[in-house]
Each structure stands twice: as structure tokens, then as C-alpha cells.
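Duplicate of #3305? Posting structure anyway:
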């Protein structure tokens, strides 16, 4: 469910994110609400902000002109928010959905974040063979998606190394 449009600081549309991510970006002071749903508020604990329809990043980010973010293990963990694709707990490893032993390759659509236990348990089997269904399907993040995911992943650095390396230096 992607319901909030994200604009760059220059007002250029970047991507869409879930309401949850939009709220995180606003609460982390990385974005401001440009348009909200009239009369609706997000209320939880100490949080009370309008439900954003459009947010705008406070700092201009340069998105590398690429159709696809390059695959990396770190990128998979960020894409999956360090959540295990099999049990939902914290993931520290990357699992090949179709195992390498069966010809599975590195790539966004064949890799998911996994906890060490599930990675070990699944071993050289497919999810079907192991009886371990995926909680969500892997997807290919666009460079803008990858950047927004990294910004809300709780990482210290706003840009992951593998994306920052492809970004042009700020003018
Ligand atoms: Zn797990």
C-alpha cells in the first residue's frame, strides 16, 4: 500500500511510499507535509500529525540516473527492513530463494533478508521444498525507492554505500 507521494526538495516527484514510511520521514525531520487528508490525523503516543498525502524532502537528494539499483546483500537487508522473509524477526543474513546449489543467482528477485536460524533451516531447498512460505515477495527497488528505503531504515547514513557510490557529487 503506497499512498503518499514523495517530492524532492525541488518539488520534483520521486516515488510513493507507505503512510508509515511517510510519517517516519516527517517525524525524523527529513520531510515536511505538503498536502494532507483533510480532517485525518495520525495519533500514537506522542505523535499527532495530519495524515500526509504528499510530503517533500527537506534536503535535496540526487537520484542516480539508473533504471535499477545495483544488487547487494546490504541493499537486500535495507529493502526488507532487516525483517526475515520467513518469520518476520530481525534478519542479519541474505537467503537465496532458489538456492545457489539449484542454480539460483544473486539478484533482487531471488534474494530475501533472513534470520540466521531460518537461513540455516532452509539450507539448499526452495521455500516449497522446505515448507517455508515467503511472507512477502522480493521486488526490484528503483534507485529512488532504494534511497527512500535507506532513509527510513534507521541506518545512520542517509545513503547506503552502494547507492552513494553511484550518485553524482552535490554541486
Ligand atoms: Zn526467520
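Output from current build:
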Amino acid at each position: 500500500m503506497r499512498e503518499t507521494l514523495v517530492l524532492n526538495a525541488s518539488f520534483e516527484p520521486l516515488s510513493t511510499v507507505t503512510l508509515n514510511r511517510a510519517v517516519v520521514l516527517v517525524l525524523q525531520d527529513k520531510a515536511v507535509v505538503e498536502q494532507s487528508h483533510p480532517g485525518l490525523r495520525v495519533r500514537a503516543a506522542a505523535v499527532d500529525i495530519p495524515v500526509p498525502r504528499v510530503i517533500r524532502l527537506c534536503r535535496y537528494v540526487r537520484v542516480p540516473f539508473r533504471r535499477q539499483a545495483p544488487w547487494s546483500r546490504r541493499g537486500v537487508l535495507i529493502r526488507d527492513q532487516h525483517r526475515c522473509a520467513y518469520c518476520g524477526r530481525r534478519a542479519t543474513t541474505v537467503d537465496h530463494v532458489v538456492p545457489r546449489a539449484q542454480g539460483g543467482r544473486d539478484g533482487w528477485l531471488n534474494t530475501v533478508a533472513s534470520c540466521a536460524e531460518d537461513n540455516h533451516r532452509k539450507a539448499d531447498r526452495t521455500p516449497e521444498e522446505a515448507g517455508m512460505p515467503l511472507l512477502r515477495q522480493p521486488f526490484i527497488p528503483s534507485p529512488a525507492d532504494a534511497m527512500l528505503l535507506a532513509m527510513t531504515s534507521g541506518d545512520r547514513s542517509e545513503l547506503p554505500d552502494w547507492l552513494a557510490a553511484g550518485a553524482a557529487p552535490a554541486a
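Confirmed duplicate; merging threads. The chain is about 25% helix and 25% strand. The longest strand covers residues 31-44.
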